[in-house]
Amino acid sequence: MYVGHINLSTTFCGAGENFVGLVESLQQHGVQQYILVRNVQLATRLELVENVTVGPIVRTPVAAYCLMPHVDVVHIHDQPSSAAGILLVLTRAIPFVLTSHETTAVINSRLNHAACKRASGFISEKEASVTQYLQTYQQAVGSLRIPTMQL
Fold first, then answer.
1. Contacts of 119 (CB under 8 A, 6+ apart)
2. Contact 97, 124 (CB under 8 A)
3. The model's pTM
4. Range of the domain at 36
């Protein structure tokens, strides 16, 4: 499985360490990963993980959308990245899953509401194990239905 990650958070704190831990755990399970982040410190730290590709630093969801290669599923890690997920699923048929944080439980904009409706899955950061992440990714890939034209 080829998983893309988008994280446009500007800080590298506890959530950043959790993100690095997830990437390392997925790598140990043989998951190929492509990562786009905004924070330079986070990118530098992720470049130390073997067999993980870290793309250029991105500042906007549109840049993340443009720079994401064709992957099986994209994991959106924060609210600012949700627009990239919507673009990927609508224009390139790449499903995305959202990390749900306690602070994102309230849908405070139309964009976030649309992202929640279009997401193929949700992962609770505090409760998830690597196995649950992998299951959610597999379900997202399996749930995407591309309409076919009938002649």
1. 76, 85, 96, 97, 98
2. no
3. 0.89
4. 2-143
Say whether 85 sits in a helix, a strand or coil. helix
Strand, coil or helix: what is 52?
Answer: strand
User: Is residue 67 helix, strand or coil?
Assistant: helix
Mean per-residue pLDDT pooled into runs of 10, the chain (151 residues): 95 80 95 97 95 97 97 94 95 93 59 88 83 93 65 46
Three-class DSSP category at 127: coil
Rg (CA), the chain: 15
Amino acid at 16: G
**CATH assignment at residue 111:** 3.40.50.2000
What tokens does 68 get? 């994401």
3-class SS of residue 54? strand
Report if residue 149 sits inside a domain. no
